[in-house]
Amino acid sequence: MYSDVVELFKTSGTTNSPTLLVSYGGPFGENFFYATENAHDDEKLNVFAPADYLDARTRRRGPGGGGSPGDAGWFLEEEHVFPRHAEFVKKMLEGDARVGVGSHGQLQGLGYHWELWAMAAGGASNYDILRSATILGAEAIGFGAQLGTIEQDKFADIVILNSNPLDDLRNTVDILYVMKDGRLYDGMTLDKVYPVARPFQRKGPVEGSAGGCAGGDREGGECEAVGGLAAAVRAGWRTAAACWPVAGTQPMLWTHCGPRCRGHRFTFSLPMETAD
């Protein structure tokens, strides 16, 4: 993309969401991650996603398997086009234009992380990629005053990581805790940790509808919607997740997406020293 296109996005306030997991002009970006990541045996994904859901997507790729158009299901690395498309992400972010993150509803629980990693393939910094998924995403949907940064009177649902995504963007999946509406959950099991510890109680099928109680957490007859698309959230992940570093801190808490804000809730990180 030429610089005048970046300037057009910037001046008009338009947000670009590249959706590289379904890049056209070559294999879908998701196929790179299916080939290089072991989603089928991912421990957390297997806790919360049905076996037939995973088998249909991870045992083989190609026609009918959620793959790219055509018969092939495996590609040499140089066949993939998403790194070239991601170069536009870098130009946009470095040019102060706005880029948002969306994973097109691909593999729930991991798809959004894969999209983040794909967006970084064009050379954008980890900081800019994480910024894209928080404050820029919040601004894109008109909620920049409520979400996306650590400020008084903003929502503060968080995901606490074991390791720093600024060091390695793939640390985004290294989740210790998830906090939702002030309740703290174990990132591996969704057992409640705070304010009252109790095991996660599944009350329905894992494949329950997004944002609903099926397979979810109930307390006193009311559904505690952990948020987002059901399988992803129960895995301690979000379909739109990212970290906005606070100035002068090392971001060790990560953000998530829930059922509010037109289906997408962008939130933000906190410095580790505030997590005690």
How would you describe this protein?
By secondary structure, the protein is an alpha+beta fold. It has helices spanning 3-12, 29-36, 43-48, 51-58, 82-94, 111-119, 126-132, 135-140, 230-234, and strands spanning 15-16, 98-99, 158-161, 175-180, 183-186, 192-194, 217-219, 222-224, 253-254. A hairpin with a 5-residue loop joins strand 5 and strand 6. The N and C termini lie far apart (45 Å). Mean pLDDT is 74; it is low at 207-276.
Query: How are the strands ordered across the major sheet?
Result: 6-5-4-3-9
Largest sheet: 5 strands, antiparallel
What proportion of the residues is helical, as a percent range? 25-40%
Q: Rg, please?
A: 18 Å
Entry summary:
With 276 residues, the chain is α+β, with helices and mostly antiparallel strands. The chain has helices at residues 3-12, 29-36, 43-48, 51-58, 82-94, 111-119, 126-132, 135-140, 230-234, and strands at residues 15-16, 98-99, 158-161, 175-180, 183-186, 192-194, 217-219, 222-224, 253-254. The strands form three sheets. The protein has a five-stranded antiparallel β-sheet with strand order 6-5-4-3-9, with no helix packed on it. A two-stranded parallel ribbon has the order 1-2.
